[in-house]
Design brief:
The protein has 2 domains: 230 residues, FAD/NAD(P)-binding domain (3-Layer(bba) Sandwich); 202 residues, Polyamine Oxidase, Chain A, domain 2 (Alpha-Beta Complex). It contains 18 helices and 21 strands. Strands 1, 2, 3, 9, 10, 16, 17, 18, 19 and 20 form a 10-stranded mixed sheet that branches. Strands 4, 5, 12, 13, 14, 15 and 21 form a 7-stranded mixed sheet that branches. Strands 6-7 form a two-stranded antiparallel sheet. The relative contact order is 0.21.
Length: 489
Amino acid sequence: MTKTGRREFLALMGSIAAGAMTGVFSESSAQSTDQYALKPWAGDDFTLGHKLRDSDLPKLPLESERKVDFVIIGGGMAGLACAHFLRNENVLLLEQYAQTGGTSSGGSYRGIDYSMGAVCTGSNDGNHKKLYDELNIAPAVVPEGDIAWRYDGHWQLGQTGAGNFYKELSRLKSELHGADRTKLDKTTFKDWLSSSDPKFASLMDNICRSWSCAGSDQVVGSVGLGIMDALSTPSYVFEGGNSGIARALFHNLEKSGSGRCQTSAFVWKVEKQGNGGSVVYSDKAQRLHRIEARHIVVCTPPFITRRIVSGLPDKLLKNFAKLEYGAIVVGNFCMKKKVFNNPYQSFADGNFPFSQMIMAETPYQIKGSYKPEMGSVLTVYHPFCTGAAGRARLLGTDRKKLAESLVKRLGELVEGFQGSLEEVVLTRWGHAFVIPRAGVSEALSEIKGVNPEWMTFAHSTAAGYQSLGGAIHSAKYASDRCLGVRHQS
């Protein structure tokens, strides 16, 4: 895996394409406290997804009501990118939620767009740059030294300096970069922290949890190398994080022709029909529809894909079953004035239930468009435990209590935080991304390019790594297959 691939795989920078289960969901009402407004949950809505999981399906229509050349399932980054590449064709994109983007979706506060998931990427060349140019967007460049670490009760700034923290950081980087890749993939990240100062090891473990939804004892040693690489290279950031890319893709698709994106469309079944395939979905009013297509592109995560698609190759099913997912809450804390003057990203140690913290106004500052009246938005990543246990805990979490707890802990790190706080938005992702355990890299590699003739699996994991780069690569591969199918017919 390339350095950029590891960076995006670990840092929640890639797009887990939305589709039959993931996406942006909002409850009907907000809550207020004496200090701030607490907005409804955003993120996953498990209602229909759990019906699908439990095989509690409605009566599906047998007759098709329309036919298109290409259907794309899932309006996350991979699905949006694929639709962009096919924008001049007869294409229909189906997205479960009212907003496209998946974990690359976002919100806005006082003119600051913020991310509800993926915040940046590690690449501004190749396919990334080509896509940005086509969309007429450009990222701000955040230098690699723009970082703060919470160590021994104090903030340490940058990558180099005097003191024990920087000695520990330098030693870990040197050992990981000097290690054989095979050894890294057969050991845990915790093994590489065993000789570290306990306070440093606690910090690294908490960073690992924020980035991979799993502790250093659960992920392979190459995760540690990925973290070091990611924090030693520049970040490329759009206003709103990766949601800025998702919005640009959606608007560009709308410009190419109305009706190409059907939101609030929950997909129940995908199957082969004739020389192509058919898709059954329900719309916002719960009306059921069956449509035919010459080729179907499935951009949903593997665990959803195996539930909705009939007749998947055994090789895909076998490797899908090896993947486990982590749950996370992304909190956006909107402040009427800027009181936290740390760099673009900061990392709290193991004394806190979160680690990574992002300043959403940074790209505005870099591009010179930030104004003091815009205030500030702090994006915080709070991981839950892995697998079904983590999702169950996430579903049972009281939103108001979680917000109160996070506000209290953030107040310990940011002077003046509670007095400036005006709005809190919590976003829950039950299947945020694949846990990078031993064997996962091999399983993802086995997924690449395994497709029946009538459909293409094009989630970012199909490229072998979960990331924005993986999403773009999968989308391009799928669109090329679609065009090949059309040219042959």
